Recover the amino acids of this structure.
């Protein structure tokens, strides 16, 4: 029986709306347990040069249940569209997966994506048959252009990568969500489950977190908490929030309150 | 030739699989690019290399 509220990306359906990264974990056992606790079905990985003279590998792939997980290689560290395209092709050769989290980030200080370079790289990669999920600043105009270029999602940031500062770009993220025709995945900057819940309440289709789990005192516990936060946020979005008001609105009837006579308070 | 961004000594007759053996890299866990040709580890050809080749050998690592 199909899930009543599945997330569909590029024709694939997922029951979880939480995506997780695999970076920064103290060890692979903690990473694997955190992924399990998160319920995530999409996990990001990075591509790096083999350190020559240091044979072997870090065992990451062995620690991931690839029967259950969709791999999402990223182009983290790429500064230009050409670098991103090259890393994308290496990622596809390495994993056999043509999904790609596209990052074109020229400046390591703030890790803010280059919008022009991202669009140019996306156009090239879609033409090469990749399923492209671009990481972007929350810019609705850029998001539409990436949709037109054939991207499978758009991934606006909540706040700078790894900052844990939460949904600082809330109003701008909303402008991306409001007109999107592809899933919107809020990526970067989420620190606690309430940040994720807010993104889902706002109408984001999913969120992606890494540092918030890996740098938690208890990564597995935090992964479980994020799972619940995402589920709560999505449920709230579907239920439809009450309108916000400037003033108070009594919940109890205002008529018929038993009162004592008080000359200083009007009846 | 250049391997992973570093100059590398070239010897005539060197092949791609020979290079990986020299570097103690297990092909099963890597992907390789020779200039603009991209190869999965399982299908790395034993092609001859030239001293002008730019070679990239990569693996998966943790990332977000």
């Amino acid at each position: 029986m199909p899930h009543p509220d599945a997330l569909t990306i590029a024709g694939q359906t997922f029951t979880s709306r939480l995506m997780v990264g695999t970076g920064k974990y103290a060890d692979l056992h903690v990473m694997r347990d955190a992924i399990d606790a998160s319920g995530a079905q999409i996990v990001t990985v990075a591509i790096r040069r083999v350190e020559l003279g240091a044979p072997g590998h870090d065992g990451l792939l062995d620690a991931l249940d690839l029967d259950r997980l969709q791999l999402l290689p990223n182009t983290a560290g790429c500064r230009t569209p050409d670098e991103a395209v090259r890393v994308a092709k290496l990622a596809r050769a390495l994993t056999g997966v043509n999904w790609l989290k596209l990052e074109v980030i020229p400046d390591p200080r703030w890790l803010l994506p280059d919008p022009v370079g991202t669009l140019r790289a996306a156009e090239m990669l879609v033409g090469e048959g990749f399923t492209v999920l671009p990481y972007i600043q929350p810019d609705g105009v850029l998001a539409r252009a990436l949709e037109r270029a054939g991207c499978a999602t758009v991934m606006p940031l909540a706040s700078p990568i790894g900052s844990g500062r939460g949904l600082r770009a809330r109003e701008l993220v909303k402008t991306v969500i409001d007109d999107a025709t592809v899933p919107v995945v809020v990526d970067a900057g989420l620190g606690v489950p309430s940040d994720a819940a807010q993104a889902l309440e706002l109408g984001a289709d999913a969120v992606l977190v890494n540092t918030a789990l890996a740098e938690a005192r208890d990564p597995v516990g935090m992964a479980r908490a994020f799972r619940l936060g995402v589920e709560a946020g999505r449920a709230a979005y579907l239920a439809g929030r009450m309108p916000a008001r400037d003033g108070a609105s009594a919940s109890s009837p205002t008529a018929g309150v038993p009162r004592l006579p008080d000359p200083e308070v009007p009846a | 030739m250049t391997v992973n961004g570093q100059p590398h000594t070239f010897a005539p007759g060197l092949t791609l699989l020979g290079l990986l053996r020299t570097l103690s890299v297990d092909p099963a866990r890597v992907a390789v690019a020779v200039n603009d040709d991209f190869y999965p580890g399982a299908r790395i050809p034993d092609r001859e290399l030239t001293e002008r080749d730019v070679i990239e050998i990569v693996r998966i690592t943790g990332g977000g």
